[in-house]
Amino acid sequence: MKGPLFYAKILLFGEYGIIKDSKGLAIPFNSYKGALKSVQNLSGEAKKSNESLAKYYTYLADLDTDLVSFNLSDLKKDIDNGMYFDSSIPQGYGVGSSGALVASIYDKYAADKITVLENLTRDKLLVLKQVFSLMESFFHGKSSGLDPLNSYLSLPILINSKENIEAAGIPSQKEGKGAVFLLDSEQVGETEPMVSIFMNKMKNEGFRKMINEEFATYTDACIEDFLKGNVKSLFGNVKSLSKIVLKNFKPMIPTAFHKVWEKGITTNDYYLKLCGSGGGGYILGFTEDYEKAQKSLQDYKLELVYRF
C-alpha cells in the first residue's frame, strides 16, 4: 500500500496574526512530502510513526463531532498491519509536517469527504478547515487547520479572516534576482510553547495594540503586494515587518539569530521573518538579490522557495 503524496506548506505571511483573525497567505512547498505506506516488519522511524498513528487512532475514535466521521475499522486494521507515514518533511520546522499527515488520513479514511475535484465553495473550504482544525489539535493542542488544508488542496490559500478563506492565485515565478528563501536555524522549534508565550503577551494592552495597528497592517500590505506582484512596495513592507518582529517577538527568534536578523535590516541584503511559530526550525527570508543574500549568509543553509 502506498497513498497519494501530500506536500509541505509555507505560511508566507500571517504567523500569529491569523490566531487573532488578521490576514494570512500560505503556499504549498513541493520540496518536502509524505505518504502513507505499509511494511511487514516495522523498525526505526517507521515503527515510531506507526506507534504515533495508533495513539492518533484513539484520538479520532473519541472525537465527538458531527462535522466528520471516519472508517475507523479500516484505519485500525491498516495500523495493525504496519501502516506508517513516510515523510521527508522535517518536524518542528514550521513547514507543516503534521498537516501533511492529517491531510493523508482524511483523504483515505474520512467518510463522505469533500474532494479536491469538486467545486470548492467558501462554505466547503470552511468546513474542511474546521475538520482539519479538530484533527490536527492532537499534535499541537490548538490548530487553525490551515496546514492540513494547504497540504490537502495543494493550492495557495488566502486567509482574509477566520470565516473567510479562499484559494488564491499567486504570480508565476520569474527568473529575476529577487527571492523568498528558507534559512535553517538547525534547531527544532515546538509550536505549543511559542503559542503560549504569544497568548501571554496578548494580555498586555500595548502588545495587543502593536498587533492590531502595526503587525496586522504590514502583514496585510505584504500579502496585497505579493498577490499583485508589486515587488518594490513588497520589500519596503517586509522590511517594516521584519523590524516589528525583531522588536516584539524576540522569544520566538532563536538567540543565535538576533544579530543575523538585525544585519539584514541594516544592510538591506535580506529581511527575515518567522516561518510558522518560530523558536527554531526555518526562518523565512526575502531578498531583492539572492546572490548577495547567499554571500551575506554564507555560514548558513539556505533553500530557495520562490523567485521574483
From TrEMBL:
Keywords: Kinase, Transferase
Molecular function GO terms recorded: kinase activity
Cross-referenced Gene3D superfamilies: 3.30.230.10
Annotated protein name in UniProt: Mevalonate kinase
Organism: Tenacibaculum todarodis
High-level lineage: Bacteria, Pseudomonadati, Bacteroidota, Flavobacteriia, Flavobacteriales
